[in-house]
Amino acid sequence: QVQLVESGGGLVQPGGSLRLSCAASESIFSFSSMGWYRQAPGKERELVATITTAGSTNYADSMKGRFTISRDNAKNTVFLQMNSLKPEDTAEYYCNAHRWVRVGVEYDFWGQGTQVAVSS
User: Fold this and answer.
1) How far apart are CA 83 and CA 7, in angstroms?
2) DSSP label at 31?
3) Alpha carbon distance 109, 2 (integer Å)
4) Which run of H or of E encompasses 99?
5) How far is CA 17 from CA 1, 32, 33, 58, 83, in A?
6) What is the mean pLDDT of the chain?
7) Which end of the chain has fewer CB atoms at under 10 Å, N or C?
8) Where are the beta strands (DSSP E) in 3-90?
């Protein structure tokens, strides 16, 4: 059973920074990609950023230039550095690991979430 454990959330003032961590219970290279999603109250879960096994990254438009996804292969950990935080970034942030097996067979694993609140 894959386990993803997030940490690093908290309360921060507008303009501040936070760094989220996601520790996987197995090698991150066993996944096709890993990423971060977020869900604000009353809204659907949305993509924040992803990073593939090859190291390619993808960001939602509203996060480009402010958020950076990275990984530490040796520690099986993925990070999300969030800068210039805005109140609208307030949400529960979830780590995701995606595993592609073959056409029609894919799996998504999720962490328990970590709360980020941006407020003065």
Assistant:
1) 16
2) S
3) 7
4) strand 91-102
5) 32, 28, 25, 20, 4
6) 96
7) N
8) 4-7, 10-12, 18-24, 33-39, 46-52, 57-59, 67-72, 77-82
